[in-house]
Amino acid sequence: MTGPDGTPAPRPRRRTPEEPFEFPVAPMLDMSFQLLAFFILTFQAPTGESRIDLYLPSAPAALVAAPDSASTGRNRPVPGATSDLETDLVVRAEADELGDLVSLSLQGSDVPDADALAGRLRRYREQLAGEPVKVRIEADDRLRYEEAARVIGACSAAGVDSVRLAGSASEAGP
């Protein structure tokens, strides 16, 4: 057969019945369960996440200052931005080589443990009657996070309004 322009006409294609396509689910399920079993059996919980090192700043806090209006090069404190460094209660926490809490003191007097610290801070809070109680914790660099969290928790339990972290005064240098 030829077409109207004299070229041979294409043959009509014979249609073959389409075979139903089946997705092989069973082998894929077998493989996924094998992978799941492999990861469950070889999983080991990380032990390093249970200990977090807490690195505290070693530089002393600076006072807020603004340039003098006479441009003498001297700085004067900004009004309204008073420093609370003098009114903070200072808690010192020292650690041994392993990071365990060795000594704890509040305003220079020794405190046996975090519970006693909370009791003393409650008494300060009662004496100040309405004034905000602010605590600055000067901790040793080696102090473990769990120990530091225990001290911070004692401050929170006593109702302290503000807790600040600072490096140990002996580490700040000259």
UniProtKB/TrEMBL annotation:
Top-rank taxon of the source lineage equals Bacteria
What is the topology of this protein in the membrane according to its UniProt annotation?
Answer: Single-pass membrane protein; Single-pass type II membrane protein
This entry's Gene Ontology molecular function terms read: transmembrane transporter activity
InterPro entries found in the cross-reference section: ExbD
- According to the UniProt record, where is the region Disordered? 1-20
What biological processes does GO assign it?
A: protein transport
Keywords (A to Z) from UniProt: Cell membrane, Membrane, Protein transport, Transmembrane, Transmembrane helix, Transport
| Alphabetical list of Pfam families matching this protein | ExbD (PF02472)
- Where does the record say this protein resides? Cell membrane
- Spell out the GO cellular component terms annotated for this protein, sorted alphabetically and separated by semicolons: plasma membrane
Gene3D superfamilies on file = 3.30.420.270
Q: What family is this protein classified in?
A: Belongs to the ExbD/TolR family.
Could you tell me what this protein is called? Biopolymer transport protein ExbD/TolR
Q: Which organism is it from?
A: Tautonia plasticadhaerens
Classification from the root reads: Bacteria, Pseudomonadati, Planctomycetota, Planctomycetia, Isosphaerales
